[in-house]
Design goal:
The protein has 404 residues and is of the alpha/beta class. The protein has helices spanning 2-35, 61-66, 89-99, 118-127, 148-154, 176-198, 214-219, 232-242, 263-280, 282-285, 293-307, 312-333, 340-344, 350-364; strands spanning 48-53, 76-82, 105-109, 134-137, 142-143, 161-172, 210-213, 246-258, 369-372, 375-379, 385-387.
Amino acid sequence: MPIVRELIQAGCLAVLCAVAAYEALAVAALLWWRWRAVPKDPALDKPVSVLKPLCGTEPGLYDQLRSFCVQDHPEYEIVFGIRDPADPARLTVERLAAEFPHLPITLVSDPQQYGNNLKVSNLINMLRHARHAILVISDSDAKVGPDYLTQVTAALQDPRVGLVTSLYRAVSTPDIWSRLAAMYINEWYMPSVLLARMFGHQGYVSGQTICLRRKTLEDSGGLEMLTDHLAEDHRFGERVQQLGLRIVISPYPVTCMQHEASLRSLFQHELRWLRTLHTLAPHGFRWLFVTFCLPVALAALLPACLTAHGTRASTSSLTLFAVIVAARLVLYCQHRPSHLREQLADLWLVPIRDVLLVWEWAAAFANGRVVWRGREFQVDRRGVLHSIPAAAPPDQLPPPARST
């Protein structure tokens, strides 16, 4: 029927327009961030306490933690935290303490738990040992240059700034799952963050860098207010903004190492992130499908061309699809070295990456369960974690009741 055919064409063209608009704007946001004029703030000549919560070992851990031990900031200390005294990360910290005897390094080993977010519990235990009024909290997989502390703390010269955070670029170990994980961050998540920022969203906070005054942390309710939240970094930002203070994204780029041992590990990790987004913005989350470039564009292109073969609508659909592919390739290339061989190495993973995103996005609607550090939680509408008890092994289950 002509009317049905026209409706299909109009719907498919609308989807293609939406995807093309998103991809073009994401590229524009990347260019805007790179080319914008950034005033250089004067250095903040105050001592800093760096808090590094740890949990187990990971590829590159020594190099990542060591990068924080060679900062050119005039005075700082590093407080590392583990919950288990047998945590293998202890050996890395002890190695660094021996290598840098003049740097104040403290290792806090404390199993005290205050809620379901074990990272926040670790930070609460660590904070008691931090001596300085300026705090920098950073994840264990972050790697930085020697001017990192000087640059990220500089914005606190402005009393209107309450928190400084950073963007980051992911690098991966050689296996395929880790490369897909890095593509998630570099080609989907970071462009989305920059696009939101370009349109005025000021709430982005990343655990790769949370830099703030101790007084700001105390005035916002302290870490104790975050002990059961899945997205503790986002809640950090909300509370700082409620104080009437600004969140600033430092121009300093942080590198983080991505390592995923299996498809299951990758899926669980990214599903947790997507369910976090679903919790924070449930109404906008359903429209994220327009950001999953290739599979969505293909799903709209095929019926559009079949129902409008040889017409102007068919030409418009193909043109929009070409724009989408071109923009997607820009997002793929923008974080990679300029050598042609390295540029092409993961090109075949692009459609796989986008299809996997669609799969994870659909799964995020199913229920609010996430797996974090081997534990399973239910996440409610406020983003609060509720522990799900592990099932008892079969040999520990009570015997079935005998019928009489």
